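Researcher: Please translate sequence to C-alpha cells.
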Amino acid sequence: MKGKNAIAILALYALVGCATPPAPVILVEKPAERDVEKDPFRIFPDTYRSRALAQEKQGEVQQALFSWKIVQSFLPDDPEALHKIEHIQKLIRTEADRHFQKGLSYLNEGSLPSARREFLLVLAYDPQHKAALDYLKTKTAEADYLLYETRQGDTPSGIAKKVYGDSAKEFLVAYFSNAAANDQLKPGILVKLPNLEPEPKREHKQMAKQAKPKSVSSPTARDKARADEHYRKGVNYFLAEDLQGAIREWEETLRLDPGHSRARRDIEKARSLLVYVGSK
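Model: Translation complete:
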C-alpha cells in the first residue's frame, strides 16, 4: 500500500512538471524548555535509575536505596527497582545490626566515644534505628552539646546543614527536636544537638539570634521577579536530583510571592516524594 502511494505521488510530480520531488520534511519533536518548568518530574525515573546504579558501585547504599525508591514511586511494578530495594534493605539491616552490637560491646567496656561512633554508624545505615538513637541520646551523652535557636523557616535538613555541614544528618536534628524530618520548626526554640566533632567550632556553641521575620504584604513587581528567579533555581535543583535544594528555593519563591501557583504545586510534590521515600 505504501509503495502504491509513493508511485502515485511521483506520478503527480511528473504531471505538474517537477523534475525531482522535494526532499521530505522530517519533523523532530524536541522537548521545550518551558515543558521542563511545567513538569520537572517527568525525567526522574530514568535519571534516578542511572544514579542508583552509580551509587551502588561506589558503595553509597543509603543514597542508592533513596534513588531506587524514587524510581519505584514513579514505576511501582518495576522489577529491577523492587529487587534492588529488597537487596539493599537487607544489606542495611545487616550492617546496622553489626555496628549496633559493636556499640553495645564498647558501652559495656565503658568506652563511650567508641560506642558513640558505632551508634552513629548505625544511623548512617539506618536513620530510623530507634535503639541506636536512644543509646546515643541517653547512654553516651557528653557535656559538650551544641545549642541552636531556630529561625523562621528552619527545617531539620537546613539546621543539619548549618550545624554539621551535612543536610543528610537531618535525622539527628529531627530526633533531638522532636520533629518530623520535613517539619518547619517554630522560631525561637532552643534545640540541644550532639556534638559530632572533638573540638566544635566556637560559633556552633553560641545560640543563634532569632531573625525578625518581615511583615506580610502584597508582593511588589520586584518581589515577583525575584520569586520567578528562585522558582527557576528550584527547577534546576530538582533536575540535579537535589530535592531539598529545590524545596528551599520554592519556599523562598512562596515567601516573596505567596500566590505563586507553580511553586506551591511543585513544593507539595517534592515534599510528598520525600515522605514516600522516608516511609519505605
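Researcher: Any highlights?
Model: Residues 247 and 268 are 9 Å apart (CA to CA).
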